[in-house]
Amino acid sequence: MSSRGSSGTAGNREPDPGGPTLAERAGPEAAAVAGRLFAGDLSPEVMEAFGRLVVPHDAGPRHADVPGRLFPLIPRSVDVMRAFFGGLSARYDLRRRLAGIAVPTLVVAGGHDWVCPPRASRTIAGGIPGARLVVLPEAGHSPFSEEPDQFHEAVGDFLAACTGSSAGCHPSATPVANT
Q1: Kind of pairing, strands 106-110 and 132-136?
Q2: CA dihedral for 106, 110, 111, 114, sign (positive or negative)
Q3: Number of structural domains, the chain?
Q4: pLDDT (mean) for 106-135
Q5: Which of 34, 52, 91, 120 has its CA 20 to 30 A from that of 97?
């Protein structure tokens, strides 16, 4: 991996302390709107405010144009959102099951992602045996769209490590420690 992104391993951690919160990125009003939506309030007023105040901060600061192009492509179902935010999200914690993932895994995080910040991605990668973590410092929640060249490089490096191994895909990176 080049210096454009950082690959986290037990001996080589990415430099960010965990990523910013939504309140730090977008202010208290945006955080309050997100809190209402995540608590299950899918009223038209909250949905409009979420789109206006929160969605623009889904990307890293250098990629403010991405959410406006990406979000219209994502199908949304109020029924699915209601089921998830109305109860499932409070219990949605799969950390105990991560150790059961027995396939090569690449976790790619954005340094400005407040939805699944780098500290959460470290936990995910640290819970999966042999996982590799790459943090793209300038990206937010959609690093594949915000930093496509770096994303493709990370995936290419990971796949090259897989295809270069005669015993199957076992990337040479040391697993990420669970911090």
Answers
A1: parallel
A2: negative
A3: 2
A4: 94
A5: 34
Domain housing 69: 22-91
Same domain, 72 and 118: no
Q: Hey, what are 10's tokens?
A: 């037990």
SS3 track for 42-68: CCHHHHHHHHHHHHHHCCCHHHCCHHH
The CA R_g of the chain, rounded to the nearest whole Å, is: 17
Q: Are 87 and 112 contained in the same domain?
A: no
CATH number of the domain that residue 136 is part of: 3.40.50.1820
Beta bridge partners of 132: 106
Angstrom CA distances, 83 to 34, 37, 73, 78, stand at: 16, 12, 21, 8
Cα 124 from Cα 99, distance rounded (Å)? 10
Q: Are residues 14 and 40 in the same domain?
A: no
pLDDT above 60 (res 101): yes
Residue 18 φ/ψ region, left for φ over 0, alpha for ψ in the -120 to 50 degree band, beta for the rest: left
Mean pLDDT of 157-170: 73
The token pair at 34 is 């997100």
Residues 26 and 113 in one domain: no
Cβ count near 49 (within 10 Å): 18
Contact 82, 40 (CB under 8 A): yes
pLDDT of res. 165: 61
